[in-house]
Amino acid sequence: MKAPVDLQDDVAEVLVSEDQIQAKVRELGARISTDYAGRTLTLVSVLKGSLPFMADLMRSISVPVRIDLMEVSSYGGSSTESSGLVRILKDLSASIADEHVLLVEDIIDTGLTLNYLVRYLRGKSPASLRICTLLDKPARRLVEIPVDYTGFTIDDRFVVGYGLDFGEFYRNLRYVGVLRPEVYSTPAPEPGPVAE
Amino acid sequence: MDQRDDAPDAPRLTDGGPAFAHVSEAEFARILDYYQVAWAYEPHTFPILWNLSGDVLESFSPDFFLPELDLYVELTTLRQKLVRKKNRKLRRLRELYPELRIKLFYARDFRALMLKYGRLELAEELSGTAGHVTPLRSAASMLAGPFGAERLAVEALAETTRAAAALELAPIVVVTGHHRRRRRGAARAAAAEEAQANA
Hints:
heterodimer; A: alpha/beta; Rossmann fold; six-stranded mixed β-sheet; three-stranded antiparallel β-sheet; about 20% helix; B: alpha+beta; four-stranded mixed β-sheet; two-stranded antiparallel sheet; 6 strands
């Protein structure tokens, strides 16, 4: 995919503003701090989309936290064709056995990636495992997984920004916006990993 | 990096899988395989209409059953006229079997899914009836002649192979006696729909 000329021009509508995001992150951070009071928490961020959310959220949490990063392949990505199965591209760097783990996601729609990750992380025997997502798109859900902390529930629209990409671009927008349909309609972009 | 040894096991693969009625179904199965979600293709048929003698007049077979999630999924990438018919059947199914969990995927949902995975070109090819392995317009005429159902099944098999080749998908076609019987039923239903549409 060619790099966009102007990121802002490709956005039809700001769905969640920077101020709304920051307010929600502070609110989630406060809730998480209360819920995990007296405990140490391991935040596991799912690359690449959740990176900005993770960076802001961890600074809004007052209890001691460790952080770790994971990346899994996405269906349709160029690196996925050989095996035909989802793969862990970046694994945890430390054991989470007996740790309280909070999985930090940018968006949950079908739940397929999350379902895989939850099964994988449960196999690591954490003391507890909860899920936090900035965005929830329930209209597209296939796998129902209880989400403990949700920032915003959104309609079924193609969103970019604040970590969310289209063709690896738009992640650096400071808000969540709806991409103009003409951006992704023609010509078709080269297949590439799209974070869930 | 290779698949991790301690990653969840793949419950099921499409290799040697069923003959799908639509290439969108084959693509959906690949997605489920990819994320290691077990599935079965049209494993259950639910009667939804009977006559006074108790004979089943109409039934519904959701496309997929995901046993781990106890969820049925129906893909509807058809023309709007046929979507309405399917919606009616689905409403009837929900009335009669309220305990069933079923998710309906419309063309727009499937298109959004393909966009998410960077496969918009596939979504556009699959939209409407282009991905159908059984051309609806010819179904009635093919059924009319001798061995019509068998001819239709052979044609459907050939169409599936052509569609898969066009999309550079690995062929996923194994027609068993069960599938042939099921396809025959589907062909009759398609012919009936066609006749109704033409009336």
